[in-house]
């Protein structure tokens, strides 16, 4: 049941820093007007008022605009009795009891406001006062016989009448009974202005980058007084009193502590020292806030891949370089799930962008490649991306990518890691839980490391290290209780919050290619544009080929899916599909490996055939596919130079025999376009029986005819 409140027009409610006064109350609620803004009103129901009164930023002052209340606010130091010291507060409560007792007896006509009546009714007034405060004979706990009982003396009639008048004029507020001697004391100046100036010098002497001690600062300050007195003695002026060391120390104790620390240790150190802990921003939904950072791993590893290391002779293995890799991590603050991970040789914007790309992907294939038991399905759009001020994150390339995705970027000031507490806490957890399990760890500092031979014990290659990290994150960290989640696991928190709120939508494929795709320039020809032997076309490219004099086209290629690319025609980006079917979802690494396998089998081939390339891709073992997936997370990923080299090696587009003949028979078999490369047919042999027929001569001429196009000169 909602309570109904009774307000007065002189009351004031302040909520969220906005002061309001009641105008009108009815059965449903009330209308309030903002203080200082006449005519601006707000209406609240009694339920909303009840919730408002429980909020920490709401204060209610009854009778705030009454004349008596305003008079007390000007003359009294506090707003409630509980702000007073305990002794003064007890005195005010006793004075209130005296006034209440007097008014009670006066209502019964047992006392009057005359000295004779007051003196005659004094015993009854004392007894009523003791009853109200529970002292003396009215105490709850009776005193033992012979034990002293403290009883306050009643004031004289004149003082009592003054208390009662002040109490009544203040609408019976006990604040009117606060003694005027509450803040009494000697406030006259002890030191002359010149002495105060010299004494204040102790602050500047102590606030020095050389960090003198307080004793040294006090002695130097007293030396200033001695020097001043020598000058005064020479001038015949009265000498100043030299303050004691305790007086100067008290003056130093009144200085601003932040100012002293900043002057002695630097502004950044002062900001860290005086930073107040907090819970950070409230994050309720998955992917609402994603924190991303880089960290140098506390373990020595062999800076190569396992396949290279195993083929090195023992003497070369001993000389091989060992070092520490950098790790890029992105974590969802609501569920504490890791949504991206990547190894890097050094902090750089390229690896930071590749780590950002993984946030939008289901990374379960990577977990399966590392033989993890759990899935790594955590992905989605980003609400706010929080990074530090590292060079990789403030670079133009990274910020341009973030802006292209339409993601809000937040870069807290440098030197304040607790503003990114979630990611910093994860790195600490990683150092405490995983690093002790690895040989070649470097510990947190040289003191903890001692004589531990980290370089000599380094035995993990990059792909081994990425497997270990994937296993820890996917199978251990995501499945163990998390303190910030009140014992819930990150996987369980992700499942629960996804069911309640969902995630922001992942950017569409065209946006992802514009933001993350490899930028290349291609010439427009009769087949569209070429990349790595595949030709791509769309309606916009065909229109440009017919009507535009510009033959240079900018493209963006997603190396994880070469089935289609983004092409820029004019000022607009368009999706362009591969003219050759069967390459949807095929990665650039798989295509290159398939072409390499076919060329190895047919070293003398002059043409590449699509079905054979597709069959070669299909023959790539699952182990190689896993190796490709894990390699993408290491520093040995596909570089732009490799892409350009592989693309230049394919001067002709991939076309099947049927496509080169200009005839593609229809087929309903979905597996008909399954990958290979065959050498061209020997035209010197006798034609097969299948070549006989009315169209065999025409097809033979078309096969032997030299095909020419705009791309022939590439």
TrEMBL record:
Transmembrane segments: none annotated. Residues 699-708 have a biased composition (Basic residues). GO terms for molecular function: nucleic acid binding. GO terms for biological process: DNA integration. InterPro entries: Integrase_cat-core (IPR001584), RNaseH-like_sf (IPR012337), RNaseH_sf (IPR036397). Residues 657-714 are annotated as: Disordered. SUPFAM superfamilies: Ribonuclease H-like (SSF53098). Gene3D superfamilies: Ribonuclease H-like superfamily/Ribonuclease H. Residues 282-498 form the Integrase catalytic domain. This is Integrase catalytic domain-containing protein. It comes from Mesobaculum littorinae.
